[in-house]
Design brief:
This protein is an alpha/beta fold. The protein contains ten helices and twelve strands. The protein has two domains: about 160 residues, Beta-carbonic Anhydrase, Chain A, CATH 3.40.1050; about 140 residues, 3-Layer(aba) Sandwich (Beta-carbonic Anhydrase, Chain A), CATH 3.40.1050. Bound molecules: zinc ion (ZN).
Length: about 325
């Protein structure tokens, strides 16, 4: 790791970075545990309830605003939701993709979510195939999301399905349009509007790869911004973070190749304790053996990402304290 790396982790000023709401976070004492670089409270220690699964594109330009839309009381007002961030999830699911069907099945059956939200974005630069016609682009996504919905509601009749398209209006505004009404003879509806703050940001060299698990997301985002100094990032949110990379999952590899093409050079991968994606692998292991297992996975994944052409790869594991009140971010080398 180079000295000028963006992953220079010790030169931080959390007090300036964090607002009052986030003062609960603190940097761990390096003298006590040199590996731990970030400690924060674990909010889901009890019996966690996850309300929804949300599927978004990995694009850094809309992640921030979409997160707000999902949480805000005037938006979808979601409290705890699994977040899948992946390229062409809808297309794969419609065409019978196994890992997509499995991801949805786990959310709907094991986590018992009552809501599935699928979000598609208009692209900043409209793809050639739409002949510079935003309406064509929107029509394409509406059709695909409706197909998704029809298949999904057949398979999961008790789960509400909400398709959202993010329009770019006049180049400076994002408009979130819900197509849910179209399934029931109603109309589409604009449900959120926000200034398009990333419209002039040409590219992004950072990628965060993490599990879709709702219990660790906010903290992983905080960690990436405050400690890793990634001001914004593409997001690959998939079950078990590196699992799909190590297993050569087609969808995941394609998302990574797209990230490379779009200029990503620096990657952070975060694994966490108590990960459902690795349940079978770790069920008979002690806590320290479980961590060792994740370290090996991260090591293999890191090598693979380097081989693919990513310049810097940072790996971390999130430990839970014995009483499950704290999360500790540990550097994996
Ligand atoms: Zn997980």
């Amino acid at each position: 790791m180079k000295g000028s790396s963006f992953f220079t982790i010790f030169n931080i000023n959390l007090v300036n970075y964090l607002d009052k709401e986030e003062v609960k976070m603190q940097v761990a004492k390096f003298a006590q545990d040199k590996e731990t670089i970030f400690t924060t409270t674990f909010d889901y220690a009890g019996s966690p309830v996850c309300n929804a699964i949300v599927i978004i594109p990995p694009d850094f330009r809309t992640i921030h605003d979409t997160s707000r839309f999902l949480r805000d009381p005037k938006g979808l007002n979601l409290k705890a939701f699994d977040l899948v961030a992946s390229d062409r999830f809808a297309k794969r699911y419609i065409r019978g993709g196994e890992s997509e069907a499995k991801t949805l099945k786990i959310a709907c059956n094991d986590h018992e979510v009552s809501l599935a939200v699928v979000i598609h974005n208009a692209e900043l630069i409209i793809p050639d195939r739409f002949n510079n016609d935003r309406k064509k682009e929107e029509y394409f996504h509406r059709k695909r999301m409706m197909e998704f919905g029809n298949k999904f509601m057949d398979e999961h009749p008790n789960v509400r399905f909400v398709p959202i398209f993010v329009r770019i209006v006049d180049g400076d505004t994002l408009e979130y349009v819900s197509f849910e009404g179209l399934f029931y003879g109603g109309e589409e509806k604009v449900v959120w509007r926000v200034a398009f703050s990333f419209r002039n940001v040409v590219s992004c060299e950072y990628l965060l790869i993490m599990c879709l698990d709702f219990r660790f997301r906010k903290e992983c985002f905080d960690f990436s911004k405050a400690i890793l100094k990634m001001p914004y990032f593409h997001l690959l949110g998939i079950p078990g973070a590196s699992q799909g990379i190590i297993n050569d999952d087609k969808a995941v590899i394609e998302s990574l190749q797209n990230a490379l093409k779009s200029g990503v050079r620096k990657v952070a991968i975060i694994h966490h304790a108590n990960c459902t994606a690795y349940k079978k692998d770790v069920e008979n292991l002690s806590i320290s053996q479980e961590e060792e297992f994740h370290r090996v996975q991260l090591f293999i994944c890191k090598r693979k990402l380097h081989d693919m052409g990513f310049e810097e790869v940072f790996t971390a594991f999130v430990r839970l304290s014995e009483d499950r009140s704290l999360m500790r971010f540990v550097v994996v080398k």
